[in-house]
Amino acid sequence: MSSRNSRRWASSFVKMAEAIGKSNIEATTTTSTSTATSTKSGSRSLWPSVLRWIPTSNIHIIAAEKRLLSLVKTPYVQEQVNIGSGPPGSKVAWFRSASNEPRFINTVTFDSKDDAPTLVLVHGYGASQGFFYRNFDALASRFKVIAIDQLGWGGSSRPDFTCRSTEETEAWFIDSFEEWRRAKNLTDFILLGHSFGGYVAAKYALKHPEHVKHLILVGSAGFSSETDAKSEWLTRFRATWKGAVLNHLWESNFTPQKVIRGLGPWGPNLVKTYTSNRFKITSPSDVMNQEESQLLTDYVYHTLAAKASGELCLKYIFSFGAFARQPLLQRASEWKVPTSFIYGTDDWMSYTGAQKARESMPVPSEIIRVPQAGHFVFIENVPGFHSALFYACRKFLSPDNYEDLPFPDGLISA
Length: 414
Fold this sequence. Notes:
Helix content: 25-40%
Distance between the termini: 16 Å
Number of helices: 16
Strand order of the largest sheet: 1-2-4-3-5-6-9-10-11
Shape: globular
Mean pLDDT: 84
Radius of gyration: 20 Å
């Protein structure tokens, strides 16, 4: 990761806290039924939002998800997949809490052709499966699309996060995903992970390669460590008072979500400003209209403001500056699954880490860069992202002539 990208990342860590806006999110009167399991946070939803300090709950999350996915034309099924339960004090990281209630993974599955290959989507840090809402229709035309909220995120269960090491934290996500796979009886699927979800997907494929036939890493985090990078800038920055404060906040597991919760009923204002600035569409023909922007903002707020759980993974997976504590680059020689990397040309996650990893990978790999897009390439340049993804999956979509398919116009092979 370059020093310029490190500076951009460090700045973004506190950007949400500085972006408090002036406009309230309009109240929505849409109602929704949900299959989510009732929780204590869900029972609080019976109170009017204005009377609660944090106006959200799991029920609110699922309802906001349903409203956002109303923009998708392809029929889908939403379910809470039971991945089991364990006694208090269990040695299993994602069981270890004061509760022995079953854990659930929020899952949406879209209608598809019977013979379509299965594509599983894993979101990144601070996100959830609904972030792929602009892609579901196009992807469902060629794949059986299944998208999940990782454990501790979105509409999934949010058990107490009790991990105290990188190894335990990785197990939290990898092993809970494996329990979900078993519950769904899936194998031989294409696995796509974005950002931190790319890190999880890659670590899962390293541990369970027998179930993944192709790996797609979109703006993936976790390839470079602090020692791999020429991080003189970061060292100097930590020596300043601002750097010392930010590094302390990081090591104290302070997250942007805590700012949102701390603002209580004013939290939606902050999220509205954040989403309007964060998801800038470069194509004039693809700019979000007011309804879409409102639905996305509402969804993002509810997923971020709910109980802290999976978000607390941050300091155990990355050191300050988004450098992996156990970088994927160091395990490139162990790679067992063919891999396609997709990056926006303006992504602050540098593709150079993937280039270095590719040199040691014993399996086929390729890097595709999408112009006019940053870290959220699948929102910012939808046609470009779909073109890159379909090309990455050409072996499964066009098995008879995939070797003869030309590289798509407008994309960049790195």
